[in-house]
Automatic annotation (TrEMBL):
Key words, A-Z: Hydrolase
Protein name as it appears in the record: Alpha/beta hydrolase fold-3 domain protein
Family recorded in the similarity comment: Belongs to the 'GDXG' lipolytic enzyme family.
Keyword Cytoplasm listed: no
EC number(s) on file: 3.1.1.-
Domain Alpha/beta hydrolase fold-3: 77-282
Pfam families assigned to the protein according to its UniProt record, in alphabetical order: Abhydrolase_3
Signal peptide boundaries: none
Phosphoprotein listed as a keyword: no
Gene3D superfamilies with a match to the protein in the record: alpha/beta hydrolase
């Protein structure tokens, strides 16, 4: 059942996207998403220190935005924004990363990974692992404890976070924890939540399929655990994990299936069911008190992980 505090948000969200001309194309969608998230930003997070950095990668660089105090030694988060792999930036999740930096006294590194269709799987995963290595190499300058790094992300960013966690395990790069927020963890659209919420709210079944087709244009990509982390046979090696799903979301059952499989393999997994909530609910925080409740549950969980003595896995 939908939390009725979200009705106003859904009305406003639908109206903004309906006003975008069909001729706007991907560039127009990206710009509108930037504008919407900037307008909704909580002023309290504008006061969080943040700075751009550029991480070497191949012949180029990956832009990141670092949130939080970078003096002393603090736990850190490597964060990947949502947007269907086709839009979004470190700025579109400013409130999420700012909140975690503020509520958990963490240094949060938010990654501007390459977007599809210009860049497709597995490039964002490789970029994410490169940023993780950079965080460890530059830990003193960044003011972070390399033994207390959490991977995190929302929606498609949750997918990349889960994939980077798996890649880090394979590369023997230790992590303290991972946090995934309404993530896309495989491309199986036959689960009940896909039919139940085929027409939304916010994320439609056909739209999610189009996102997968864009990010993974080769069919064989969809069976790769770095594209579909739910398919991994390494979930027993996961660090402590929190997975926040939304009750009214096509991706709900993918998230709960991952949690069930990881728990069965012996991983430590905490699930927030997001009762009454929708995909992308952090965009609706000013409309819906339940979103703030979820935020604080995540922050409490992160603070508990950060209080531990280093790496858990």
């Amino acid at each position: 059942m939908l939390d009725q505090n979200l009705v106003g948000f859904l009305r406003d969200w639908t109206a903004r996207w309906a006003a975008l001309p069909a001729s706007a194309g991907m560039a127009g969608q990206r710009l509108l998403f930037e504008n919407i998230t900037r307008e909704k930003r909580d002023p309290i997070n504008d006061a969080i220190p943040s700075a751009e950095h550029f991480v070497p990668f191949g012949a180029g660089k990956i832009r990141v935005r670092v949130f939080g105090q970078t003096h002393g030694t603090r736990p850190a988060m490597l964060y990947f924004h949502g947007g269907g792999w086709v839009r979004g930036s470190a700025e579109t999740t400013w409130d999420i990363t700012g909140n975690f930096a503020r509520l958990c006294d963490m240094v949060v590194v938010s990654v501007d990974y390459a977007l599809a269709p210009e860049a497709v799987f597995p490039l964002p995963v490789h970029q994410g692992l490169a940023v993780l290595r950079w965080m460890i190499a530059e830990c003193t300058a960044l003011g972070i404890d390399p033994a207390r790094i959490t991977t995190a992300g929302d929606s498609s960013g949750g997918n990349i976070a889960a994939a980077v966690t798996l890649a880090a395990l394979d590369a023997d790069v230790p992590l303290q924890a991972q946090l995934m927020i309404y993530p896309a963890l495989d491309a199986d659209n036959t689960r009940p939540s896909y039919d139940e919420f085929a027409n939304g709210p916010v994320l439609l079944k056909n739209t999610m399929q189009a996102y997968w087709d864009t990010y993974c244009p080769a069919q064989e990509y969809l069976s790769d655990p770095l594209a579909a982390p739910l398919l991994s046979d390494q979930l027993h090696r996961l660090p402590p994990t929190m997975l926040a799903v939304a009750e009214n979301d096509v991706l709900r059952d993918s998230g709960t299936a991952y949690a069930d499989k990881a728990r069965a393999a012996g991983a430590d997994v905490t699930v927030d069911p997001g009762i009454g909530l929708i995909h992308g609910y952090f965009l609706a925080q000013t409309y819906c008190p339940a979103v703030t409740t979820c935020l604080h549950a995540m922050a409490d969980w992160l603070n508990a992980q950060n209080a531990q003595d280093g790496i858990q896995n």
